[in-house]
Specification:
124 residues
Length: 124
């Protein structure tokens, strides 16, 4: 099965939302972080639903948003709220992945967040 179409659509949508979140990160650090995390989670779960995994580079915008949250968010309440939102969104995304795939196609809980294994040549 060719999964390139759904994966590219998922990645493109994530990158579009990620760019907007990065542009708003200085004015709304907590909101940008939560929106960026939700977009990343949607892209990962959507890609895993069709049996594909995204590159580890998709985590880079989230790393920038997380740093920015710690650096610029003046209110500890907003920071804690953003972290709690991520704590709720993470399991919700994993549950959604479980519910939207057939039991034989299920990619396996936290395996959705894993990078694809590297293939190495066999040493004979």
């Amino acid at each position: 099965m060719d999964t390139s179409g759904p994966v590219w659509a998922s990645l493109t949508a994530y990158e579009a939302v990620g760019v907007v979140a990065l542009l708003l990160r200085r004015r709304l650090p907590a909101t940008a972080f939560v929106v960026g995390f939700a977009a990343l989670l949607a892209a990962l779960v959507g890609s895993a639903g069709v049996g594909a995994k995204l590159s580890p580079l998709v985590f880079l915008p989230l790393a920038v948003l997380l740093y920015n949250l710690g650096n610029r968010c003046a209110s500890w309440r907003r920071t804690v709220s953003a972290v709690l939102a991520v704590v709720v969104l993470g399991p919700a995304g994993l549950w959604l992945n479980r519910m939207t795939t057939d039991s034989g196609d299920f990619q396996g809980g936290l395996g959705v967040l894993a990078a694809p294994p590297r293939r190495t040549g066999s040493a004979s």
